[in-house]
Structure to design on (915 residues):
């Protein structure tokens, strides 16, 4: 064929054809094609993708089966890979059940009330049962050793809720209340020893006591983030006060203030973001009261001090600061360099910059414009390197 | 068969330019009658957009061998067809015609409520399908809440530009309505967020309207896109041909109007110019049906990204460019392309659209488009000529149809389009041999230098040489310009300047002279 074309190109030009016009030649080409028509075909891959989309298989999977929706992850810190299902009893009433590879369990029923006053008022009630059979414990204080890792089992049942008012587009305030029933046991057999094998149980407040708390409090939340699931601008400034009243013995009452500031500084058209977070938890007790060790704030793990194990440090007060430099590699992937510093202390006055535990690392954030759906963070600390594979963003 | 067909097309359209002397009686062809054969059995064929992304981002579909566009006439122009109609650039449209665009009326009738016959509640772009009192069907599309007027203005304005440029586009109207204008059809079904079909309820309409912007007077602003006449068949690809359409014989990646679309898409920042935003329609009479090819969905043009302001990357980089991604990762983000520094004005109804950093040559759609990749200098020159046909006043008049309430935004948008137009002219007219508009006036060959006429650059010195072509042997011999009409029936004029040589063929027929070929 090529030879024929070349021949035509090289031979002296011919006299214009008298037989056929250009339009007639095109018509002939079309008539020729009309003799050999074929239906459009799809390749194997296209067929597969086409069926997934046309049959809305992803939506149906997310929507679940007869009201059951799949749930992946999100049970508790340190639970390992978790999965489960939720069931929509009605538009506002939902139940869920989740288990993890480490034997964690979580069962929950949530009722969200209709919104009132053109969405300004909101409320939610939920009851939860959790069984965390392998909660890590390294001792109390900021200078515990990694080798002292032990574990215990924690079970709690709670019923409670919150109600609030949206004061402005990004501002909401309200109160919360509930009952929490907590018990601690040996948990399941694990690579780490049971807590009692390394620590004096008598030195651990409320270890052998089943406690029922009445929890009440207020919250205030200002959220100016552009996309909460993948923020690049704005910030979140939240505070929550909780009062825990021991309903059994009256010995373990305490108050807790959780404060968190997130701020995002975008530059280069939001393709670069400096993400900052500071978080503090401060607890207060009267002189004759104690806080159960399992209710104390903890530090370490994928959500705050990366490079350290989950629950690595535990005490009455906690402070953590995180800084991330995030940059876009391509549309669906951001890369991050991060630095974390945190500390726990029995008294606020004990916080010292020199006592901060530090970690640094890098991460890959797989995302859409609205959401980080998966992240791989690698944190480095004096205790080594840790890799975190997590659904959802860190902050 | 495919090879034979390709050869036929090659002989028909390419060989004339190679030999430069073989002209047919009907050259130059101005109408390619690709509706001549009745399309009897053409299948509806939907395209999967994920698959489309994958084959284009990770593969190279279509023929990528550099070659001249295959569907041009001997003047290097695109004949009218089911794909393209020469409009503003060749047959000047009045401002009134430009402003009207493809629209045949005033949009959906407001005399009676619209019956909602379909709805899309899931996803990020909610919308309705309605039937108005006249029985016409429209798709109703909205602005994102944070960018009122942006997507609807972009859709309406770009529709008019693409129509004037020569493409088949739907009739798109701006519509303003209240909730009372909508009534759910009792028989209407919708697919909900769970992928299941169910009856459309009035409450579903409220759910959708809750997610879109409502103006202070309680009205919703939307684009009403009239359903195209004919039977929708699915999108066309930017490569290959439809195997079930006998009239579709030119590989799409070698069609000039699809290659040149790259320039128009750059001008209007149509980064979503991909197969999924096209539509083939079975049109015509029952005994002579043919496939018409449309460009649809211009919500992601200008500064609009449909559901938000256009992404900063849009127009600058493909979604997937592994080299750039690796460089960014390896340099901790210290390396990047210039687009991340582009500054945009704070105009929510515009989004992200600018002209200062705009570089027409490096502009890119979301992912590689085979026709765009194949575009040659000739293709982009052809398209740039069409872009430059729009005057400032015409551009401002079309922009006005977007009904932007902020006059600063309207002025900015028009100014930006004018500046981008001029950059396109400088890129593809000023840097190429832009002697053009050849014509015979009273026996004399006349032409003009486009770049200098449009103040894009100086006219270079040039010289012309005249030749008579022997009709039997095809050999040429020099003739004096004054004597050329007496020497033969076919003549060649070589116009040479520092920018190169353009060959113009003139044919004498029945005493009349006719420009029959332009080869640049």
């Amino acid at each position: 064929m090529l030879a024929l074309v070349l021949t035509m190109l090289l031979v002296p030009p011919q006299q214009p054809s008298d037989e056929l016009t250009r339009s007639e030649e095109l018509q002939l080409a079309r008539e020729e094609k009309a003799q050999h028509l074929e239906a459009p075909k799809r390749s194997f891959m296209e067929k597969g993708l086409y069926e997934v989309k046309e049959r809305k298989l992803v939506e149906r999977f997310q929507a679940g089966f007869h009201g059951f929706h799949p749930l992946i992850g999100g049970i508790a810190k340190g639970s390992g890979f978790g999965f489960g299902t939720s069931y929509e009893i009605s538009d506002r009433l939902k139940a869920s059940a989740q288990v993890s590879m480490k034997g964690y369990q979580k069962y929950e029923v949530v009722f969200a009330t209709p919104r009132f006053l053109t969405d300004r008022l909101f409320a939610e009630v939920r009851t939860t049962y959790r069984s965390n059979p392998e909660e890590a414990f390294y001792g109390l204080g900021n200078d515990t050793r990694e080798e002292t890792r032990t574990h215990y089992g924690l079970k709690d049942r709670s019923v409670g809720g919150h109600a609030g008012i949206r004061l402005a587009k990004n501002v909401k305030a309200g109160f919360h209340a509930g009952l929490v029933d907590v018990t601690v046991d040996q948990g399941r057999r694990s690579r780490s020893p049971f807590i009692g094998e390394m620590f004096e149980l008598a030195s651990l407040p409320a270890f052998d006591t089943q406690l029922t708390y009445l929890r009440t409090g207020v919250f205030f939340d200002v959220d100016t983030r552009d996309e909460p699931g993948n923020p690049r601008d704005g910030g979140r400034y939240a505070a929550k006060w909780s009062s825990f009243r021991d309903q059994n013995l009256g010995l373990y009452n305490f108050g807790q203030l959780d404060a968190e500031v997130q701020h995002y500084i975008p530059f280069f058209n939001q393709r670069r973001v400096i993400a900052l977070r500071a978080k503090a938890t401060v607890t207060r007790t009267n002189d004759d009261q104690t806080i159960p060790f399992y209710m104390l704030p903890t530090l370490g793990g994928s959500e705050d001090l990366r490079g350290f194990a989950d629950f690595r440090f535990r005490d009455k007060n906690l402070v953590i600061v995180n800084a991330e430099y995030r940059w876009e590699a391509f549309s669906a992937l951001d890369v991050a360099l991060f630095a974390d510093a945190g500390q726990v202390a029995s008294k606020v006055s004990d916080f010292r910059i020199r006592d901060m535990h530090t970690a640094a690392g890098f991460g890959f954030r797989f995302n859409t414009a609205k959401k980080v759906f998966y992240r791989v963070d690698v944190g480095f600390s004096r205790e080594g390197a840790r890799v975190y594979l997590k659904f959802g963003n860190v902050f | 068969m495919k090879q034979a067909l390709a050869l036929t097309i090659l002989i028909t359209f390419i060989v004339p330019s190679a030999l430069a002397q073989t002209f047919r009686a009907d050259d130059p062809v101005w109408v390619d009658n690709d509706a001549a054969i009745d399309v009897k059995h053409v299948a509806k064929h939907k395209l999967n957009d994920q698959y489309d992304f994958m084959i284009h981002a990770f593969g190279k579909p279509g023929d990528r061998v550099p070659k001249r566009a295959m569907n041009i006439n001997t003047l290097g122009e695109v004949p009218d067809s089911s794909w393209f109609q020469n409009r503003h650039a060749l047959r000047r449209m009045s401002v009134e015609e430009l402003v009207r665009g493809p629209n045949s009326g005033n949009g959906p009738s407001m005399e009676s409520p619209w019956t909602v016959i379909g709805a899309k509640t899931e996803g990020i772009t909610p919308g309705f399908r309605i039937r108005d009192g006249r029985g016409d069907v429209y798709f109703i599309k909205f602005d994102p809440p944070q960018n009122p007027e942006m997507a609807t203005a972009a859709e309406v304005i770009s529709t008019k530009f693409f129509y004037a440029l020569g493409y088949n586009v739907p009739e798109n109207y701006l519509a303003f309505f209240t909730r009372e204008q909508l009534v759910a059809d009792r028989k209407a079904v919708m697919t909900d967020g769970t992928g299941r079909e169910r009856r459309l309820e009035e409450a579903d309409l409220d759910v959708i309207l809750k997610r879109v912007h409502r103006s202070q007077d309680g009205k919703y602003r939307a684009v009403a896109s009239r359903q195209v006449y004919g039977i929708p068949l699915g999108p066309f690809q930017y490569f290959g041909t439809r195997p079930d359409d006998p009239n579709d014989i030119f590989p799409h990646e070698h069609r000039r109007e699809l290659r040149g679309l790259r320039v128009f898409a750059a001008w209007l920042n149509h980064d979503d110019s991909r197969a999924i935003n096209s539509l083939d329609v079975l049109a015509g009479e029952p005994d002579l049906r043919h496939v018409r090819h449309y460009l649809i969905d211009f919500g992601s043009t200008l500064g609009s990204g449909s559901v938000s302001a256009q992404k900063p990357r849009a127009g600058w980089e493909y979604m997937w460019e592994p080299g750039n991604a690796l460089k960014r990762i390896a340099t901790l983000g210290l390396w990047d392309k210039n687009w991340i520094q582009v500054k945009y004005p704070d105009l929510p109804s515009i989004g992200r659209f600018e002209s200062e950093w705009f570089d027409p040559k490096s502009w890119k759609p979301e992912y590689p488009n085979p026709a765009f990749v194949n575009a040659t200098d000739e293709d982009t020159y052809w398209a740039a000529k069409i872009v430059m046909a729009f005057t400032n006043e015409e551009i401002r008049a079309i922009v006005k149809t977007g009904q932007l309430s902020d006059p600063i935004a309207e002025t900015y948008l028009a100014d930006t389009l004018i500046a981008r137009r001029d950059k396109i002219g400088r890129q593809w007219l000023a840097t190429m041999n832009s002697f053009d508009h050849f014509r015979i006036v009273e026996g004399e060959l006349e032409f003009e230098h486009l770049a200098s006429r449009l103040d894009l650059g100086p006219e270079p010195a040039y010289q012309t040489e005249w030749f008579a072509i022997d009709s039997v042997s095809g050999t040429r011999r020099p003739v004096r310009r004054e004597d050329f009409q007496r020497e033969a029936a076919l003549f060649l004029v070589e116009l040479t300047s520092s920018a190169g040589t353009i060959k113009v063929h003139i044919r004498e027929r029945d005493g009349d002279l006719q420009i029959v070929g332009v080869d640049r």
